[in-house]
Amino acid sequence: MAPLFEVFVCQVYSNSLLMDLTFGGAKYISTGRGFAITRLDFFTLYSRFVNISIYSGFQVFFMLLFAIISMWQPALLWFWITVISMCFAPFIFNPHQFAFMDFFIDYKTFIHWLFSGNTKYQKESWANFVKSSRSRFTGYKSKTVDDISEDSGHDSKKARFWNVFFAELFLPFCVFLFNFTAFSFINAQTGVSDSTPTSAVFRLLLVTFLPIFLNSIVLFLLFWVSLFVVPGLSYCCKDAGAVIAFIAHTFSVLIYLLDFELMWFLQGWNFTRTLILLITCINMHLILFKVFTTIFLTREYKNNKAHLAWWNGKWYNTGMGWSIILQPIREYFVKIMESSYFAADFFLGHFLLFIQTPIILLPFIDYWHTMVLFWMNPRSIIAHKRILTRKQRALRSRIVSKYFSLYFVMLGVLLFMLIAPFFAGDFVSSPQELLEGTLFEGIFQPNNQNNNDTGPNAPSTILTTTPTLPTFRTVA
């Protein structure tokens, strides 16, 4: 456990130092120098550490997975300690994380955290979390309207461009270049005789901009629905704005899920090439959104009136004055980026939970986990000896039965979407034949090609045998 803890702590320290140098706001936070003895909800740990460690950890995870399946060597196993520490340390060191009933109650609170905050202000919501993350780049406006949501907005100035440039733009761009180099090389058909050139760059641009374009269309249509329909519905349905937000976010999840399947299809059902395309696409999204946020996006209002007005259409009572004329345009571009961020957090949060599924099914895992954390005698553990009323026990049982079913339905759907492409090649072995002779013929990457250009397949310019040594004579 110690290596996992130390790697995670070093990541937190390094991230804190980098963020202080980039955005400022350094301050002393007392830690208490004690153990975590209270179980925190999954969404609380996720929102606290996803920007600090989990996002970076999953980038390392994807690149490490690509390295293992493309050029395996035992030395790569060492880096899994880093991946596990950065992604799972907050949950491993959370007391009673693997308690069966609490785990599925966690799933319920995580789903509610994702979809809440779209009808009224809620401090603990994904909408407030993503706004706080974005405000590090934009800063806040000084104008206030005396709303409760303004209490969560600290007085922060917009970070200077050159401070943000190195840490948030230049370094991610370098990572993108490294990934793009690997993507270009693996799609170059090196060693293939009589190869047909393909449009790998166009393929990357397609899978990157297609979900952004589709989300922009969905949001544009829903904007007019919220503007003209939702205000009238709000008299009989107070959650009409939340329904519009749910539709937009659900469409975003489906769009990105289909985009992932499209990557498989365009890469000829090859997992290695699909994975590097996914990695490069993710990094390209990060670069595009960070550049747009840093350069073009104006400051945030401390209140969340504009966010709520986008979903419920009530722009007339936001109290923003004349800026309300252009605010919907700004909010439109913000919501396009938020749709992508929502899909990322939806899949990432579910992946973190799904990885823990085999652990929670182990008998007495909560006792063993507590023993490892606190070195306690199993008889001293009172996790399951809490006194609950009959009503509380019945409520917890209903929540677990409901979200247990939803959890495994989601697990089955996502597993199917991940595993099905491995067998899709048996039905559509050559996707490029579907568009043969058209403008998009070169968008597909051929699969099962012979890339071995060594031995008898080597070009004539390459020596494959030892040449005969010439005879030298010193006497005529």
From TrEMBL:
<keyword id="KW-0812">Transmembrane</keyword>
<feature type="transmembrane region" description="Helical">
    <location>
        <begin position="367"/>
        <end position="383"/>
    </location>
</feature>
<dbReference type="InterPro" id="IPR003440">
    <property type="entry name" value="Glyco_trans_48_dom"/>
</dbReference>
<feature type="transmembrane region" description="Helical">
    <location>
        <begin position="275"/>
        <end position="297"/>
    </location>
</feature>
<dbReference type="GO" id="GO:0051278">
    <property type="term" value="P:fungal-type cell wall polysaccharide biosynthetic process"/>
</dbReference>
<feature type="transmembrane region" description="Helical">
    <location>
        <begin position="164"/>
        <end position="186"/>
    </location>
</feature>
<dbReference type="GO" id="GO:0006075">
    <property type="term" value="P:(1-&gt;3)-beta-D-glucan biosynthetic process"/>
</dbReference>
<feature type="transmembrane region" description="Helical">
    <location>
        <begin position="340"/>
        <end position="361"/>
    </location>
</feature>
<keyword id="KW-0472">Membrane</keyword>
<protein>
    <recommendedName>
        <fullName>Glycosyl transferase 48 domain-containing protein</fullName>
    </recommendedName>
</protein>
<feature type="transmembrane region" description="Helical">
    <location>
        <begin position="404"/>
        <end position="424"/>
    </location>
</feature>
<feature type="domain" description="Glycosyl transferase 48">
    <location>
        <begin position="1"/>
        <end position="231"/>
    </location>
</feature>
<dbReference type="GO" id="GO:0003843">
    <property type="term" value="F:1,3-beta-D-glucan synthase activity"/>
</dbReference>
<dbReference type="Pfam" id="PF02364">
    <property type="entry name" value="Glucan_synthase"/>
</dbReference>
<dbReference type="GO" id="GO:0000148">
    <property type="term" value="C:1,3-beta-D-glucan synthase complex"/>
</dbReference>
<feature type="transmembrane region" description="Helical">
    <location>
        <begin position="49"/>
        <end position="69"/>
    </location>
</feature>
<keyword id="KW-1133">Transmembrane helix</keyword>
<feature type="transmembrane region" description="Helical">
    <location>
        <begin position="206"/>
        <end position="230"/>
    </location>
</feature>
<feature type="transmembrane region" description="Helical">
    <location>
        <begin position="242"/>
        <end position="263"/>
    </location>
</feature>
<feature type="transmembrane region" description="Helical">
    <location>
        <begin position="75"/>
        <end position="93"/>
    </location>
</feature>
<dbReference type="GO" id="GO:0005886">
    <property type="term" value="C:plasma membrane"/>
</dbReference>
